[in-house]
Each structure stands twice: as structure tokens, then as C-alpha cells.
């Protein structure tokens, strides 16, 4: 996530804007603003405050102080997270949610084996899963196709149509005829 502190513009109680800079696929592009909801902006502020992040990359690698349990401290480094590291963060978050709701039971004293089991469980998830899920949530909430395209930075409807095909099937003529309606 190549977002720097300078790319953020916070508005009290009204979320924030983040300027997405050109990528290697869009070198000629201008920075594009994206809206962050108030909760997201608050979480981002908290992350930055706890890590004392005042300049440079917002999402950085963490380093342990070597302690365990309550003495363990994660220290923010100035090194930006890579795409594979973002994917690992997403996979571990999915596994932790599954553990919290009882879907996944991973126990053991070997932390590396527990981590490997968590990563295996969530192998199908990635940072891109968040983008796809956001498109689905926006569509389910009735956001226009143009709004979804803007939010996700897509230039062409083909990808979001692919992401939304199951959702759209539940809203189609047969679903309406038989009263299925949109999923809850």
C-alpha cells in the first residue's frame, strides 16, 4: 500500500480523502482522490498515533522487540509493506476472525506451525479480496455502477460485472418472480 502521510486529508467527523498516486501500470495518471469513511479515518488516525507515524509511509513493516506476552512490543519501521506482506496480513486477519467465531481451531505451542496453519486456512484470501468485497457491498447497498467504478478505480465495467454476477443473479427476473430478492 503505497500511501504516505502526505497523501491523507482528514476532515473531523467526515472521514478523509486519500490521494492514490500513479502505479507502474498507470505511470502517466494523475493522483486520484478516494473517500475514507469516518470509521476508517478514525482507525487510520489511531494506527498513526500508536505508531508515531507523522511522515513517510503509513503502512509499514512491524518489528518485535523480542518480548513475549504482555512485554511484547511491535515497533513501526520506515519500510513500506510489500504486496505479498499485505496479502499475509489479510490472510492472518481472516484466520483470526475464524478463530474468534469458532470456525477455525488452531492450537499449539509452536508459533510458526500455528501461523502456517492460519495461512493455509485463509489461502484463498488476498488484499484483492477486500477490493472485490467492497464492490459487492457497494452494489448490495444500491450504489450505482459509476460509483462502484470510481470507488474501486476501475475504468471498465467488465471486472465489476464479474465480481457481482452472483449478487445480480439474486436480483434478476427469476429471483424476483419467485420472491428470492437480494441476499440478507
Which helices and strands appear, and what pairs or packs with what?
Layout: E1 8-10, E2 16-20, E3 32-36, H1 38-50, E4 60-64, E5 74-80, H2 83-100, H3 111-121, H4 127-140, H5 145-152, H6 157-169, H7 173-177
Antiparallel strand pairs: 1-2, 2-3, 4-5
Description:
This protein is an alpha+beta fold and 184 residues long. It has 3 domains: 1-80, Intergrase catalytic core (hpI Integrase, Chain A), CATH 1.10.443.10; 82-125, no CATH class; 128-177. It contains 7 helices and 5 strands. It has a 3-stranded antiparallel sheet with strand order 1-2-3. The protein has a two-stranded antiparallel ribbon with strand order 4-5. It starts with 7 loop residues before the first strand and ends in a 7-residue tail after the last helix.
Please give the radius of gyration in angstroms.
20 Å
CATH class of the largest domain: Mainly Alpha
User: What are the low-pLDDT stretches, counting only 5+ consecutive residues below 50?
Assistant: none
Major sheet strand order: 1-2-3
